[in-house]
Amino acid sequence: MASKNHGLTMNQINTENIIIDILSSVILVIRNFFGLIFYPYRSMRKISQERDYGQILTVFVLVFVYFKFAYFLRSDPYPASFIFLIFSLNLFVMVLFFYLIAKATKPNTDFAPFLFTLTYSLFPTLLWFASNSLLYLLVPPPRTLSFLGKAFSGFYLAYSFSLLVWKLILVYLSLRFSSKFSFFRIFYMFILFLVWFIPYSFLLYRLKIFRIPFI
Asked: Which of 42, 112, 116, 148 is the most buried (most CB within 10 A)?
């Protein structure tokens, strides 16, 4: 009887540890999210040193929730699980691409910083897509050409541009802290990435998987 109670206690302890680990990862993701807004350089440098893979899982869960929301909001031809699978493959290929280029020059390059930093660089993308879906729900097209309609369009363009700038900053910092390369080498590496990614994105568009790549 004592050993049985002891087993239950150990199970409870293990469950509590799992819950604590999950909550800790969620809190770290929230903290890093706001850090990337206000202190992107310092925050991305800390993220490049992370090894808590629960944070990666947390970001992936957020992306999956968005895909589920978007699927029920619009009549997409593919289920959310399939879109999420394609997204996961795209992200992994992108991380692997930059990692292998860096490793070809610096053999001691670590894979984890690329995974963590590029995963966190998804936040501007996730915000833009989520905002776009919410606006589609709250202010569905077609939108009028009235003064308010034009003001809304101007605000939306400014908002989208600010997220794009934030995205580019985070991607640059991701590659900077993961590869330790200079600006020009990072720029060259990014151009190589675009050489194959742009045709691949067009293929995804033709297949009606992504109108705009979720990266």
From this structure: 116
Measured between alpha carbons, how far is 24 from 28 in angstroms, rounded to an integer? 6
Residue 46: is it exposed, middle or buried by C-beta count within 10 angstroms (0-12/13-18/19+)? middle
- From the CB of residue 84, how many other CB atoms can be counted at a distance below 10 Å? 19
pLDDT tens digits, 82-117? 999 999 999 999 999 999 999 999 999 999 999 999
Query: Residues 173, 110: contact at Cβ < 8 Å?
Result: no
Report the candidate in 127, 102, 89 with the shortest Cα–Cα distance to residue 190.
102
* Dihedral angle over CA of 73, 77, 81, 85, nearest 10: -120
For residues 209 and 192, give the distance between their C-alpha atoms in angstroms, rounded to a whole number.
23
Give the other-Cβ count within 10 Å of 182's Cβ: 10
Q: What is the longest distance spanned by two Cα atoms in the chain? A: 76
Which uninterrupted H or E stretch holds 63? helix 53-73
Contact of 204 with 213, CB cutoff 8 Å = yes
Write out the two tokens for 11: 């199970």
Contact 185, 175 (CB under 8 A): no
Quick: pLDDT tens for 118-160. 999 999 999 999 998 888 777 766 556 666 667 777 888 999 9
Residue 43 near residue 67, CB atoms below 8 Å: no
Residue 182 in 3-state DSSP?
coil
